[in-house]
Every structure is written in C-alpha cells, then in structure tokens.
Amino acid sequence: MHSKFEDISLFGLQTRFESNQKIIAITKLSLTPKPECIIPDSVAENRKFRFGLIDYPDPYSSKRGILIASSVVDLSKSVIPVRVANIGDKTRTIQEGEVIAAYAPVTCVNQKCNSQNHSSDDLIRNLLQNTDLDEKQRCAAGKLITEFQSLFSRTSEYFGRTRLTQHRIDTGEHPPIKQHPRRLPFAKQEEVQKLIKDRKIMMSFSHRQVLGHLPSSCSERKMALPDSVWTIVG
Fold first, then answer.
1. For 95-112, what is each residue's pLDDT tens digit?
2. Which 3 state secondary structure label does DSSP give 109?
3. Chain center to CA of 188
4. Whole-number Å distance between alpha carbons of 84 and 106
5. What is the pTM (predicted TM-score) of this model?
6. Is 222 a residue whose pLDDT tops 70?
7. From 34's CA, which of 58, 118, 147, 148 has a CA 20 to 30 Å away?
C-alpha cells in the first residue's frame, strides 16, 4: 500500500473473514448524500493480530451506496477509525452494532518512509510525467510551475493566507490602507446601512442649502445694477 509518507508492504494477508474479524459501529450515525467522514468502530475482543487491512465484509455491501476506504489500522486500540462515504442520493443511517466492514489480519508490516526531501525539478518532472500533454505543452507547463512554485503548498503547514501575490492600484496622492479582505458581520450590516442613509440625507440637505442661496444672490445683483449705470449727456 502507498500512503502520503510511506510505502507499506503487507505479508500474510488473508482473504476470508471470520466472525471475530468483523468491524461494528459503536454509535448510530446518519450520512447525508455525498459526504465523507471517519466513524468510530470496534472489533471483537479476541484479537490475534495487531494490524489489519479494512475491507468489505462481503462483495454485495457496496450496493447500499456506502463505500469503505481500504486502510491499515491498529487493532490494539479500543476505537478503530473507518473512513466511509455515502455515494447515493439518499441519507443512509448506520445503526449501532451494525457490521460496517471487516479486517484481514496482517502478520507483518514493513514501512518504508518516503518523507525525504526531493528537489523541485524532480517533483515537477514526476508531476508532468503522468500527464497527457505533448512535449511543447509539457515544457510550457514546467516553466509555469517553476515560475510560480512558491505559490504551491508542499505540506499542510503552507495552507492559509498568503502575502506572495501583489497588485498595484494608482491612487495618486492618497495611498491605500493595507487591510486583509474581510466580510462585514451580519450584526454590523444594519448599523452600516443606517450610517450610509444618514450620510446621503446630509449630503442632500447640504446640496439644497447651496442651491437655495443662489436665487437671493442673483436678485441682489439685479437690484444693484441700476445704481451703477452710467448716463452720458450729449
């Protein structure tokens, strides 16, 4: 078996399941359509092996619309995690004590770690090797990945906000305030809408005051015109 960080070689794998090799659910659980989750389960008390490979208890269990992930588990623990997925269109209910899966005992496990550091060129080469691109497209994709390789995450620690991307906006003499993008909370939306409404009313009132002074000033200028008329006597 191949996992993210190691290769696991299995020896002494059995294909027939006995009654004490069944994995049962310890709680009642409802699976909505299209989700994937890990549910707690348990096995019989008379464990003869420490490790086991999870599989279907029978070839017809997959018709119920529930998929069981094949994985190696430690049977010495009191709770066995089983990854399940509901691929049907209806909600599936797993009853307490229901047989979910079965495990095939594994007599020997040889783990080979794959977590050593690889160069970026090797990772890109292995990534492009399994694609359907032609040589020209593969070369262009390799250059693009190499140019923006700092944007891709190598481990789960790389996920989150990033400051690697940059952009520029010409704001003239008013530099912008650097803030993270955020959504206005629902509790503040009513308050903000009220402030915007009050601001619009104030702007409208100020605009009316300015327009209201224009007629009076014009009339004063008209009344002052006769006093400043020059009379020419011939």
1. 888 777 777 777 766 655
2. strand
3. 26
4. 21
5. 0.39
6. no
7. 58
Owner of token pair 């050593």: 116
In whole angstroms, give the CA distance from residue 24 to residue 43.
Answer: 6
Cβ atoms 41, 82 nearer than 8 A:
yes
CA distance 13 to 192: 65
Residue 60: exposure state from Cβ atoms within 10 A (0-12, 13-18, ≥19): exposed
Q: Does residue 73 contact residue 47 with C-beta atoms inside 8 Å?
A: no
Q: How crowded is the C-beta side of 43, counted as CA atoms within 13 Å?
A: 29
d(CA 102, CA 24): 8
CA distance 105 to 13: 6
Burial state string for 29-48 with b = 16 or more CB within 10 A and e = fewer than 16: bebeeeeeeebebebeeeee
- SS3 label, residue 7: strand
- On whether the CB atoms of residues 28 and 96 are closer than 8 A, the answer is yes
128: its two tokens: 């492009």
CA angle 203, 207, 213 (to 5 degrees): 150
